[in-house]
Fold these 2 entries.
Entry 1:
Amino acid sequence: MTTQDELKRIAAEKAIEFVPENEYIGIGTGSTVDFFIEALGKSGKKIKGVVSTSKTSSELLAQYGIPELPLNDVHRLAVYIDGADEVNHMLQMIKGGGAAHLNEKIVASASEKFVCIADESKYVSRLGKFPLPVEVIPSARSLVSRKLLAMGGQPELRIGVTTFHGNQIVDVYDLNIDRPVTREDEINQIVGVVENGIFGHNAADVLVLGTAEGAKVIYPGQD
Ligand code: 5RP
């Protein structure tokens, strides 16, 4: 039997093919990305540098001697590689299981291409079974939660988590996300919301899926 970690590794190793040499790239956060950083370090690919989205990814990049630089110092990122908590056939995603979706959305939006890497359990017909992470300003947590409740979701504070930017995460269960772009905008318009984990505007361009039959490369709208 192939474990979930093995499937993540299959996707991560295949994604090396999408990394151009002599360019700057962006890198996300999570266990699939950890496999990707390892594969990148071992690949011998010559890249100019990486913009990272979390301390964990930065530490791993340093271990492999891969140069890192801040987003403000880079004009162009050729590609952004990151995992997802859920991804649909249009390659829209829910992210933020690791509470890093704000940094991830910033770096994704600065990149020319988004390559999502995931094991096959993440590929879903409908977004929303995974609770939607919403980063909130701490003092607005109750206000935002009431608005999310009015939208039909069940908000729950993620206990013990403070984001990179000093905010809190409210995870929203049972929310209808059948129109991801509309929902992403609606939630971000609530005063006190910093960013939510729907990647509708920043959907991936390519999905590299780790399956028991090997890596599958999927484009938006493909079955
Ligand atoms: C972090 C994320 C991750 O991409 C997502 O949680 C997937 O993680 P993993 O690769 O460990 O399954 O959005 O904020």
Entry 2:
Amino acid sequence: MNRFPVIIDCDPGVDDTAALLLASRMEELDIRAITTVAGNVGVDITTANAIKVRHAMGKDIPIYKGADRPMFRQLVTAEEVHGNDGFGGVEYPHEMTNTEIGEEKAWDAIYRIAKESNGELVIIAVGPMTNIGIALSKYNDLPKYIKRIVIMGGAAIGGNVTPSAEFNIYVDPESADMMFCCGVPVYMCGLDVTLKAYLTPEELDEIGALGSFQGKLFRDVMQGGLKKYLEWGFTGVAMHDPAAVLYAADDSIFETHHVGIRVETKGQLTAGKTVTDLYSDKQMEHNAYIVTDVNREAFVNKVKSLMAKF
Ligand code: BDR
Ligand code: CA
């Protein structure tokens, strides 16, 4: 088993919470830091939620607070799915012993940890990519210290905020495009795959009944999102951020293609679209990888077996 250093850059966020709970149970991931960003809700709330989830993870992982808004735009949030508290309205059931966060800003921590990691660092980014954009702007040599970046964001086809854009990219398209252009291979787990990585109400209930408070938390935070997805006509709730975390650790149940990806930053109707050459005759420079499919049965089994671990 290949264990490698990771930073999880996130905006918890209900599926971010599920992703962090899973990540803490994956032996492949040596989580060096959690960095927070404004996205689903404001950064004070995503950071407060990260502190709760760290307690649930049972690990003293450093947390660094990041950007409170996108680089060049007004912040767009997603309370509709995540609740005003970004935690699906769930009261965290435990008293926390450690509520400290690191003094460094997220982008400075990313650079320092990247330099300390001898070129092995993998960044898993499951919120808007603002912290990465700022880190790249501030530190020209950052790309040479990062092995790869795995993101939840974008889509070759469609969108969930607009018909052409997925939320994490839509919120900060400029930062996302800087990331795609920085020279580090980016692995994009977008809506193409994450809508296929869903859990049904029954599967979520099974996880909630596994016997750990983490399993119950995983189930409970997802209930508001599940309700929305069922209203929208889906069979279950998309496990957007968990898909990226599972992919980073083991891509064997996923389908991946080497492609070109850039982000539209100017279009009125298409701002935030991840333009890919997956389905086009004309090719772009192949700077990235797009994840298009997952064996859902294997995905569900993996999530269940990870959450069953004590
Ligand atoms: C992404 O947007 C957020 O609302 C979720 O946490 C996920 O990262 C899905 O489009
Ligand atoms: Ca997220």
